[in-house]
Write a structure and sequence with these properties.
212 residues, mainly alpha, Endonuclease III, domain 1, 12 helices, globular
């Protein structure tokens, strides 16, 4: 039976979904790339985000100072592959400027930023904020995305709000390293959905075996 988030975590863990993935699933965890990637990945595929990040890297734009002062046209061109490039470039640049103004540097931002501050930034909603906190700032936060909602729906779980899903996913955990577990939990959900989702039909058989 899968009665809470920890039960689902254990079921997913048996499928070895994160084999050959980065230690915390999200590439280059704890760096500015996570913050930028959390915005770029909105409404697009991660493969497109990787191209955008590489463009930014090759143009030496993956620092707060560089992003804050970048020529808008160059920034737009670098992230064009991620779609909605005008809005995303503005959001990224404004966020970099606000981080510098409010925290001075990225390390201070990682330590001091709150979820409320992030949600007050242009273009950042609950999912993006939690991804930044979890993978960028090493916080004990579970990220909820469309894959999470779809998987729980397939398992017969219905929720009214993002926060309700998040609470369910975090139930049952007693780990001494909740941040690590939540990071991997979200990653396993994404990888499971990519592997087993067929059109709009989700194969939940691997999660309903008698031994689980």
């Amino acid at each position: 039976m899968i009665d809470n988030g920890y039960d689902l975590f254990l079921a997913l863990q048996k499928l070895n979904l994160l084999e050959n993935k980065p230690p915390l699933w999200w590439p280059n965890a704890y760096t500015l790339e996570v913050v930028v990637g959390a915005i770029l990945t909105q409404n697009t595929q991660w493969t497109r985000v990787e191209v955008s990040l590489e463009n930014l890297r090759s143009n030496n734009l993956l620092t707060l100072e560089a992003l804050a002062s970048a020529e808008p046209e160059l920034l737009i061109e670098c992230i064009r592959t991620s779609g909605f490039f005008k809005a995303k470039s503005k959001n990224i640049q404004t966020l970099a400027q606000n981080i510098i103004n409010d925290f001075s540097d990225f390390e201070t931002f990682q330590y001091e930023v709150s979820r409320e501050w992030l949600l007050g930034q242009r273009g950042i909603g609950p999912e993006s904020a939690d991804a930044i906190l979890c993978y960028g700032c090493q916080r004990e936060v579970m990220v909820v995305d469309k894959y999470t909602q779809q998987l729980l729906h397939a398992l017969g779980r219905e929720f009214d709000a993002y926060d309700d899903i998040q609470v369910w996913c975090e139930e049952g955990f007693r780990s001494e390293d909740l941040h690590h577990d939540f990071a991997l939990f979200h990653g396993m959900i994404v990888e499971y959905m990519k592997r087993y989702k067929k059109g709009k039909v989700i194969d939940i058989a691997p999660l309903t075996k008698r031994e689980i």
